[in-house]
Amino acid sequence: MASLPILNKLSARSGLAKKSAALDKASIISIAKRSALNESCADSHVAINGVEDEVPWHAISTAEEVCDELAVSSSTGLSAAEAERRFKDFGPNLLTPPKKRSFLEKVWSQLNNVLIWLLFAAAIVEGALQSWAEFGLVLGVIVINTAIGLIQEGKAEKAADAIKAMLSPNAVVLRDGERRTIPADQLVPGDLVKLKSGDKVPADLRLLQATNLQVQEAMLTGESVPVSKHLHAAPPAASLGDRRCMCYSATAVVSGQAQGVVVATGDSAEIGQINKMVNTVENIKNNLIHQLEILGRWLAVLVAVIAVIAFLLAMLYVGLNFQGAFESAVSIAGEGTPLV
Fold first, then answer.
1. Nearest-CA neighbor of 267 among 92, 22, 57, 15?
2. CB of 193 within 8 A of CB of 184?
3. Which of 5-14's residues contact partners 24+ apart within 8 Å by CB, and which partners?
4. 292 CB burial (10 A radius; 0-12, 13-18, 19+)
5. Residues 6+ apart with CB under 8 A from 151
6. What angle do CA 215, 221, 227 make, to 5 degrees?
7. Cα–Cα distance list, 324 to 131, 178, 310, 317 (Å)
8. Which residues are registered as beta bridge partners of 15?
9. Phi first, then psi: what are they for 73, rounded to 5°?
10. What distance in Å separates the CA atoms of residue 144 and residue 215, rounded to the nearest whole number?
11. Radius of gyration of the chain (CA)
């Protein structure tokens, strides 16, 4: 299909990561119009590497201009054939699931820490000295720490699943001039979507019509009060809660009716950005974790220095043989490590 190379060129030239299904506005417009980027980059709608400032969807003057950008009629919607073509190019309106790790991988991620290795070393020493009470105490600390980490990771996975549960299962669209109810995962940019009270918004929309429309956006903005929507464009720098001409995926219609054109689906939608953050938060080390790792390395050095000093004093000052001096050094280091 001719449009598939378009997506490849967009990924290579506009810096889109192939591992992410998120597309920026320029890429969505180009794919919707089947306009490949030429070598001179003459297409006025497409910005390469952010050189040209784009007008965000909520700042475009009128909804009709949005429809023109997406090459769709505001009266009849997309044709079935065009909707099928765009579906092949854009993919389903779904969030990318996080990579699932096995139980052993999760356990290893909790154990692979300098402080935990110090505790393991202390447990081995205590076991060698037959100090079983201290041996059990150290192992207990390791087990409890690992269990807490696994529980927290499980909560993060449930949060990602909760985001998926917010998505609408179906959508009412206008295609070929007719109203149709389709699975929400088949929506594509350019689709005209009908909304009414009680609906979940199935994708990010720029409103074409709105009658007494109020939308609950608490899960995106934190505002507990429903937001009244209208058709007037918002400033380019407007915050998410101030974009009154937009409706966002996974929010809920409290009252009124509306029609909007889909401008973003799946990972490209605002909810997709939240989903990405939830899925990648485990890879981010905050300052506390970083400082603890530094502390662990210094503690390991400190314990080794104490053990060497104790060994030398036992041999040179006290006069113990090698075995006795070694046992004394190991005993001192082993007693101190669990306390740290």
1. 22
2. no
3. 5/36, 6/30, 6/31, 6/34, 6/35, 6/36, 6/37, 6/89, 7/31, 7/89, 9/36, 9/37, 10/37, 13/37, 13/48, 13/49, 14/46, 14/47, 14/48, 14/49
4. middle
5. none
6. 25
7. 17, 91, 11, 13
8. none
9. -80, 130
10. 44
11. 30
Cα separations in angstroms, 321 against 307, 310, 324, 333, 335: 16, 13, 5, 18, 21
DSSP 158-208: HHHHHHHHTS-SEEEEEETTEEEEEEGGG--TT-EEEEETTPBP-SEEEEE
Instruction: State pTM to two decimals.
Output: 0.61
Alpha-carbon gap, residue 339 to 278, rounded angstroms: 35
As to burial, measured by CB atoms within 10 angstroms (0-12 exposed, 13-18 middle, 19+ buried), residue 206 is buried
Distance (Å, rounded) from C-alpha 273 to C-alpha 190? 20
Question: Which tokens go with 21?
Answer: 């299904």
Tens-binned pLDDT, residue by residue, of the chain (340 aa): 334 333 344 333 333 333 345 777 778 887 877 633 333 343 433 333 333 457 899 999 998 899 999 999 989 999 999 999 999 989 899 888 767 778 888 888 888 877 778 778 777 877 776 778 878 887 888 888 888 888 877 776 676 666 666 677 899 999 999 999 999 999 999 999 999 999 999 999 999 999 999 999 988 888 889 999 999 999 999 998 899 999 999 899 999 999 999 999 988 888 888 877 766 655 555 676 677 778 777 877 887 788 788 888 888 888 787 767 766 766 666 555 544 4
Q: Which residues are CB-neighbours of 136 under 8 A, at least 6 positions away?
A: none
Q: Is the CB of residue 14 less than 8 Å from the CB of residue 49?
A: yes
